[in-house]
Amino acid sequence: MPLRRTFLLMAAFAAWIILADAQTKRYDTDFTVSHSDFLISVPLDVERGQLYITLDFNGRLLRFKLDTGASQGILYDDVQLPGVRVLGNIESEDATGYRRLMQTVQLPPFRLGHLTVSGYKVQRLRRSIVRQGEDGIIGFALFNKGIAARIDTREQQLTLTDRRDHYAHTPGEVLKYRLQKHVPYIKISPFAKVTDEVLFDTGSRLPYAVNTRKFAEMRSRHPEVADQIEGSTYGSQAMGHFGSERSGQITLLGLQCLKWGDFAFHDIHCTTVNGGSHIGAPLLNYGAVVINPFRRQLVFQPYDGVSSVTVANRLHDLVIVEHQGQAMIGMVLQGSKAWEAGFRPNTIIEAVNGQPLTFQQFLRYRWVRSTPYLFTLRTPQGITTTLRALWPLQYNQQE
């Protein structure tokens, strides 16, 4: 082999090794905080069932969602923040099971209360319209580092401490958590004598959702579970960072009692999902939660010292999800006004009153209540139809 060709091949191989190394980044929590032996409380903004904290980047205040279902977190790519350092790529999986290689970046130092946090890593992500009003996400990595926390939505406070024994004997219903993909899973009881290992996910607006496959196993082993089925439909209702969940059969459930330890949530209406089982932010309406990473514990502290609550939530008649940039009807409850109007799952909304709309344009559309609109729809078989219906019906945009 000629010397020049050998040199070029060696150079190309070396460049490939360097490139491959630059493209991979391990998960880590190698950030530092400016103080030790601290106990601080910072404001917690609660909006539309989601939790937000404000981070101070050298005088620039950015709003981050507190999401225990995320590992490190997110910085949206349209946020121009000086001092962001690109580290490489990491394979990430969203709540619906989709995987993607994402760019990992290190945030510049920021203040959280009187603490200065340095070296915190997040992933870069394209922002969608459903994530307007926030600049990024802070994930469970904040606590995995060794920072205990108490989330109190009634007082709207997030209390943080590095003191190992501060929450060692805190009162409440204690559940051990297991880290899976760097986020916390606990065992709850959705039915009598039945347990489900679920993700504690403050980023979810659902009080509880059970994985479809898991529910089928529960039903086969415990036939009495079928008594709490309220119906079924077909479609998808959840959206992760990378898209909506795969369509499938959805079972509608009316749980008589969901238990966190000995604490009981009565009359919870929920569904099966194709993604993982999880409990979400709505449960924080009824009590504070302590995260104790030193003992791998989550502690539910009911407000007013009660032993049970009645949730009595209701499911949305219709769910809109994103599909390839367009608005798609993800799920419709049979017998609802949306069903009676003619809306069906997996149907793309191509236009309203003759105006073609993307998913983002659909969500921005200025609806006039009690006004009929002409919808141009495309079925999964590619057939275009139109129907006239009042809007908005009771629907939910999922994320």
Walk me through this protein's architecture.
This protein is mainly β and 399 residues long. The chain has five helices and 35 strands. β33 (371-378) and β34 form a beta hairpin. The longest helix has 21 residues, at 3-23. It is globular and about 65 Å long. The termini are far apart.
Considering the chains and any ligands shown, give keywords for the structure.
399 residues; mainly beta; nine-stranded mixed β-sheet; eight-stranded mixed β-sheet; 5 helices; 12% helix; disordered N terminus
Mean pLDDT: 86
Termini gap: 57 Å
Overall strand count: 35
Q: What portion of the residues fall into strands of 2 or more residues?
A: over 45%
Helical amount among residues, as a percent range? 10-25%
Shape verdict: globular
Estimated structural class: mainly beta
- Largest sheet composition: 9 strands, mixed
Total DSSP helices:
5
Could you name the ranges where pLDDT drops below 50 across 5 or more consecutive residues? 1-24
Radius of gyration using CA atoms only: 23 Å
What can be said about this structure in brief?
This protein is mostly beta strands.
